[in-house]
């Protein structure tokens, strides 16, 4: 278990989170695979909490650190809310209904609030870092490093710590290269440049307007017909054999992209957005 000996001016338990079931109930006395693993959870909203919830389900001891004044953002995402259960601690009776969204990705964890912008709060988290096996966070990339909780900071406190970051804009290059490599390995296709365009759907890319750009995607023939007739004012496009089907549009990509671009360049984005509104 986690041990913490410090002044609690920047630290308090905000609530427990509901237990799914005991390991004995799930596995008939067999210890869960991650029993004894201590995880410091600095994530919020969805992606990070889902990851740490799965670790908690597998038996890890997860301490979720939440914002001091309101907790995780999803605590306020109501409705729907979950009814209070009879086993709720008396100390939580003053709390508002619990968000079903929050509960859906935070079961089997323990929650605390810590203001780690304050020195005493940062000290508390450093103590938890020292006791933890894994730290998971989904702050803006590099944010925690400015607060004394980056990987280099935490590694000095606990050299064995596994530090996992889930960001909105992660290492996309390696993810893209993985797809390129598998495409070549399986299909024997060498990568080519498409810019913002989709390799197998046309039109599906960014187009220039008089004052900027619009992202337009016609994922099927019905949508392309609407685009040609209602937006571009060129109904003949959807019946032209060169553009009538997606296969044909892909084969004649450059010609069609030029036709669409030439039309869109005649008006600004606001004009075109008004034309798109309500078409579905």
Automatic annotation (TrEMBL):
Keyword annotations: Transferase
Which Gene Ontology terms of cellular component type are present?
mitochondrion
* Pfam families in the cross-refs: CoA_transf_3
GO MF entry, a single one: succinate-hydroxymethylglutarate CoA-transferase activity
Superkingdom to which the source organism belongs: Eukaryota
| Coiled-coil ranges (or none) | none
SUPFAM superfamilies, per the entry: CoA-transferase family III (CaiB/BaiF)
The record's listing under Gene3D superfamilies reads: Crotonobetainyl-coa:carnitine coa-transferase, domain 1, formyl-coa transferase, domain 3
Region of interest: Disordered: 73-95
Extent of Low complexity compositional bias: 83-95
Spell out where the chain crosses the membrane: none
- Say yes or no: keyword Ubl conjugation present: no
Instruction: State the family named in the UniProt similarity comment for this chain.
Output: Belongs to the CoA-transferase III family.
- Name of this protein: Uncharacterized protein
């Amino acid at each position: 278990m986690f041990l913490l000996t410090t002044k609690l001016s920047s630290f308090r338990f905000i609530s427990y989170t509901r237990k799914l079931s005991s390991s004995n109930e799930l596995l008939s006395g067999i210890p869960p695979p991650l029993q004894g693993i201590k995880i410091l959870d600095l994530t919020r909203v969805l992606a990070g909490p889902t990851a740490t919830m799965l670790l908690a389900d597998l038996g890890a001891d997860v301490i979720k650190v939440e914002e001091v004044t309101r907790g995780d953002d999803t605590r306020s995402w109501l409705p729907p809310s979950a009814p209070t259960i009879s086993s709720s601690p008396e100390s939580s009776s003053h709390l508002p209904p619990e968000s079903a969204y929050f509960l859906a990705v935070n079961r089997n964890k323990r929650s605390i609030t810590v203001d780690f912008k304050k020195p005493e709060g940062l000290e508390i988290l450093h103590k938890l870092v020292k006791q933890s096996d894994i730290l998971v966070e989904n702050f803006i990339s590099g944010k925690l490093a400015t607060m004394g909780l980056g990987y280099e900071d935490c590694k000095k406190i606990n050299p064995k710590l596994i530090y996992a970051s889930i960001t909105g804009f992660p290492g996309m290059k390696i993810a893209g290269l993985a797809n390129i490599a598998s495409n070549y390995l399986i299909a024997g296709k060498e990568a080519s440049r498409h810019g913002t365009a989709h390799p197998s759907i046309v039109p599906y890319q960014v187009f220039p307007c008089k004052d900027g750009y619009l992202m337009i995607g016609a994922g099927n023939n019905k949508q392309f017909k609407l685009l040609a007739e209602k937006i571009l004012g060129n109904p003949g496009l959807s019946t032209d054999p060169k553009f009538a089907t997606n296969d044909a549009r892909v084969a004649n990509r450059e010609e069609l992209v030029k036709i669409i671009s030439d039309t869109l360049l005649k008006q600004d984005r606001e004009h075109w957005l008004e034309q798109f509104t309500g078409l579905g």
